[in-house]
Design brief:
285 residues, alpha+beta, 7-stranded mixed β-sheet, two-stranded antiparallel sheet, 9 strands
C-alpha cells in the first residue's frame, strides 16, 4: 500500500492561505513558527518569510522572537535564535533589526522595525513596559502561531509580568557583549513550566482566534489587544491560571506554594526529584 505524500508548498500557496486568514497589507505581526510542521516547502524558510512580507506589504511589519539562552554572552549579530529555523534565517537577513536583550530579543523587518526593536536594552524586564512585545500590542499587532501553539507564545510572559506573578524571578546571568559589567540582572524572569495552552479554548470561545492551515501546519492568528483584554481578566481572578496540576512538575508545584505558603517552602523536597535533562522546564524550580 502506498503512502500519500503531501504536496510541496509554494510561496503562492502560503499567500493564498494568509489571505483566507485575514492577513493583509499594513498588518503588524509577531510570528512563532516551526518550518518542519508545514511539510515540504519550495524555497524553505526564505519562501515563508517572503510570503509574509509580501502579504503585509511595505506598510506592514513582521517581527519574530529570536530567543537565546543565558549561559553564553549574548551577541546580537552572532547569537543564534533558539526558537526555530525560520526565526534564525529571518534575523540574518540584511534588512532585519534585532533588539538588545540577552534572552528575549526580537528581530523585525518593515515600517515599524526600528521602533519595535530600539531601546530593549534599557527596559527593566524582558517582556514588559517599553519592550518590543508591548510595542506590538500598542501597534495593534497580531500573533501568528505557525505550526506551534500558545506554549510557544512569548507574549504570555508579558501577561505574567502585567500581574507581577510571584513566581517570576530575579536572576544574574553572564553579561551580553555590549554591556559594561560582567553580569546582567534579569528581572521578572519566567522560570520553568507553565500551562499556556489553557487559554487557547478561551480565545476560541471569545472569537479571538482565527485558525487555518498552511500545508500540514495548523495556524493560529491572535489579536494582541484582544488577548490582553481577555487573559488579564482571567489572571486577575486566578493568578495560578498558567500553573499546571501535574504533581510531578517541580516548577508548577513550587510556584503554587509561593501563593499558598511562601514561608513554608521546603526546597529539600525537590533535591532528588529531577530527570537527567538539565534543560527540563518541569524539573526547574
Amino acid at each position: 500500500m502506498s503512502i500519500r505524500q503531501s504536496k510541496t508548498i509554494t510561496k503562492s500557496d502560503i499567500l493564498e492561505s494568509l489571505e483566507l486568514m485575514d492577513i493583509k497589507k499594513g498588518d503588524v505581526l509577531l510570528m512563532h513558527s516551526a518550518l518542519s510542521s508545514m511539510g515540504a516547502v519550495k524555497g524553505g524558510s526564505d519562501a515563508v518569510i517572503d510570503a509574509f512580507l509580501e502579504a503585509i506589504g511595505d506598510e506592514g511589519t513582521l517581527a519574530m522572537s529570536t530567543l537565546t539562552g543565558w549561559f553564553q554572552p549574548y551577541d546580537p549579530d552572532n547569537s543564534p535564535s533558539a526558537v526555530g529555523l525560520i526565526s534564525e534565517v529571518f534575523r540574518n537577513r540584511p534588512e532585519a533589526l534585532r533588539s538588545l536583550h540577552p534572552v528575549h530579543s526580537v528581530a523585525a523587518i518593515g515600517k515599524h522595525a526600528e521602533y519595535i526593536t530600539e531601546g530593549h536594552e534599557n527596559c527593566q524586564t524582558g517582556c514588559g513596559e517599553g519592550t518590543p512585545y508591548l510595542k506590538l500590542r500598542e501597534l495593534g499587532g497580531k500573533i501568528v502561531l505557525l505550526g506551534v501553539d500558545n506554549d510557544r507564545n512569548t507574549m504570555m510572559h508579558s501577561l505574567e509580568e502585567a500581574i507581577d506573578a510571584l513566581y517570576l524571578r530575579t536572576l544574574d546571568i553572564v553579561a551580553p557583549v555590549y554591556w559594561q559589567s560582567d553580569t546582567f540582572t534579569l528581572k521578572k524572569f519566567p522560570p520553568g513550566h507553565r500551562d499556556f495552552l489553557s487559554v487557547t479554548r478561551a480565545l476560541r470561545e471569545n472569537d479571538l482566534l482565527i485558525e487555518g492551515m498552511i500545508g500540514d501546519a495548523c495556524v493560529k492568528i491572535i489579536d494582541i489587544r484582544g488577548l490582553f483584554d481577555l487573559v488579564l481578566g482571567m489572571l486577575k481572578e486566578n493568578p495560578l491560571l498558567f500553573i499546571c496540576e501535574n504533581e510531578h512538575c517541580n516548577s508548577c508545584h513550587w510556584s503554587r506554594l509561593l501563593y499558598n505558603a511562601p514561608d513554608k517552602i521546603d526546597l529539600s523536597l525537590y533535591e532528588h526529584n529531577h530527570c537527567d535533562d538539565e534543560t527540563c522546564e518541569i524539573c526547574v524550580i
